[in-house]
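<instruction>
Derive structure tokens from the sequence
<entry> Chain with its tokenised backbone below:
===
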Amino acid sequence: MAVLAVGTTLLVGRARTPCVGHPWGVTATASSRGPALSETPLPPLDGTAKPWPGTHEVLGGVRLHVRRTPGPGGVRVVYVHGLGGSSTNWTDLAALLAPFAGGVALDLPGFGFSEPREGFDFSLAAHAAVVADALGDLADGPVHLVGNSMGGAIALLVAARRPELVRTLTLISPAMPDLRPHPGRLSDPRMALAYLPLVGGRIRRQLAAMGARERARQVIALCYADPGAFPEHRLEELTEEHGARASLAWAGPAMGRTTFGILRAWLARGPASLWNVAPLVRAPSLVVWGEQDRVISVRRAVRTARSLPDARLLVLPRTGHVAQMEQPVTVAQAVLGMWEGVDAGTW
């Protein structure tokens, strides 16, 4: 693998050049081939557009809340959000890709407005099984699968275990194992104490009593490289969503149990390790990372792309953990470039 700088965007693609010298273990070379940014015109981005309408549907035998994006050829792209996120995380990217692919953004069980079924264990494997079963109902053939953070790890599991379901794979800051014990990775540092004996109950009550707007601001402060760039109307939408979820009895436990599910996946060894799952993926893959990601370090980016048999890496400067929200146009150009390259046999 090698790296190619295009403007201020770092593109990393497969090449025979040795990977040494770069802070992330790659070397600059003009012969590198990174992911092509599509030159196909995208629709103008309407940053004021409301989230796509949401409905509840039974997919794969599970009732999920989803947001559909109209587009050609039926459902061809499926979006999977991260921990604490929801289908609204894909509003802008889905709009930009709508002329090229109809889409579905899922609320995973316990998140957004998808109530988890009784007995759901909130492991990454369980979430991946729900997504895989849903894909079977969403399309007659393989889809373009896009995941962010936890959703990226889930999409990775789906692509590895159910290759017939996935045409291409896009991972945006996927939650690959990153066990750095740093409170700055939490939207609220008190969360690190929330499940400790004696003090945990009090901390959880304090967090539960926090206002919806403050919770929304904390999430954006953690996930955005420049929180001030988050539009005020989007903050209002996120505040409204957080307020609505506060009344759902299952929302808090789902967050806590899924967090532990991620930690268990990160501690797994042998075939269950995400690093050992990645080489099983056969779909052409695009890995996108924000250079200023505080949640999952960009230092995981090159290893992630190397682990996938047919992957290229796009690293975006001045970008944090949710590149599809911070840099939707560039991400859309990269995703569309991959689709075009795969269709043309040039990826």
